[in-house]
Amino acid sequence: MQTTIQSEHSGEKIISLPQSFTPALTNLTPTNLDLDWPLVSVIIPTLNEAKNLPHILPAIPRWVHEVIIVDGRSTDDTVAVAQQLRPGVRIIMEQKKGKGAALRRGFAEARGEIIVMLDADGSMHPREIYSYVGALVAGADFAKGSRFLQGGGTDDMEWLRYLGNLGLTTLTKLLFGSLYSDLCYGYSAFWKRVLPRLDLQSDGFEIETEMNIRALRARLKITEVPSFEANRIYGTSNLNTWRDGWRVLRKIMSEFVEHRIKRSALPPEAPLVKEDVDPLVPAMKLLAMEARHLNFIRHQMTAEAYHNAIDAIKEACWVLLQAFPDHPDMKLIPLPTQYSDLDIHTLFSKQKERSQQVS
């Protein structure tokens, strides 16, 4: 599929969209899904990501309250592409350099009750947002992705980065008593109400480490969510293994020194990490309501748009079930070899029956 955009850099331009592209349904919100569901803001820092955005923005769930692009002075068509793909997207131009500066600006501007961090390079699957939001609704304060839990994985980590991440994760376990399995990964979500307790200050890539450690220090209820990291689709990463690895190490040590000084001020009764959170059930409930809403408004959509939207729900269900292979809901129906063959109506019916039996 192709569409035309008006670009201030190159005039009229044709861009290609993924085959699964579905225009955002602006009237789809948690309210008209009949859900008592928090509003969700998705923050995406960008720097020359025009080619990658067509693979990211259309895949963000339609019920997301707002998508905020924090652009670091891109010289390509990033802003124009974002506005074409997601009508109503909020564009914030950040003059300060660094991923951390962009994220902190986005967090401050977010209007939702839940904030989700998402990279623009195609390495993080937007369909996983259901898992992160589900974990928060199920009781967590902070949900962080892990590539090393069962159901997660990565296609974008050479041996040097793997060893570095392993060493930094182990160091964090020793210094802070954490149960993290993956420290240096930036796919996370949290309630906006905990933002003052994180008190984020970093401007670079080390903001992800700062956030993870300060969530521990603040004694937030934390859970890890299985996540798969794909390769960047277009362009080259701004991450430098040695430079940014050193910045992460310095951040860990500075946080440890501050932690030792202020340790007596921490509330002792709260757990360091909360493991008994089940994100799958609330996430599946949201998907079921989304499918019901689509059936209700299908007369307002073209046949192609409707089937694309249903395929998007099937893909999100597929991603969820693959991420939690040992969950009881995995046994409700046999999984086909591809998500397009998934019988979501049977799955939702059986999942609802099981939830009622458990409760």
Question: What does this 3D model show about the protein?
Answer:
The chain is of the alpha/beta class and 359 residues long. The protein folds into 2 domains: 19-265, Spore Coat Polysaccharide Biosynthesis Protein SpsA, Chain A (Alpha-Beta Complex); 280-358. It contains 10 helices and 11 strands. It has helices at 78-85, 99-109, 129-137, 159-176, 195-198, 207-217, 241-262, 280-297, 303-323, 344-358, and strands spanning 2-7, 11-16, 40-46, 66-71, 90-93, 114-117, 142-146, 153-154, 188-191, 222-226, 228-229. β1 (2-7) and β2 form a beta hairpin. The longest helix has 22 residues, at 241-262.
Properties at a glance:
two-stranded antiparallel sheet; 359 residues; Spore Coat Polysaccharide Biosynthesis Protein SpsA, Chain A; globular; seven-stranded mixed sheet
**CATH T-level fold name of the largest domain:** Spore Coat Polysaccharide Biosynthesis Protein SpsA, Chain A
**What's the order of the H and E elements?**
EEEEHEHEHEEHEHHEEHHHH
Helical stretch count?
A: 10
The named CATH superfamily of the largest domain: Spore Coat Polysaccharide Biosynthesis Protein SpsA, Chain A
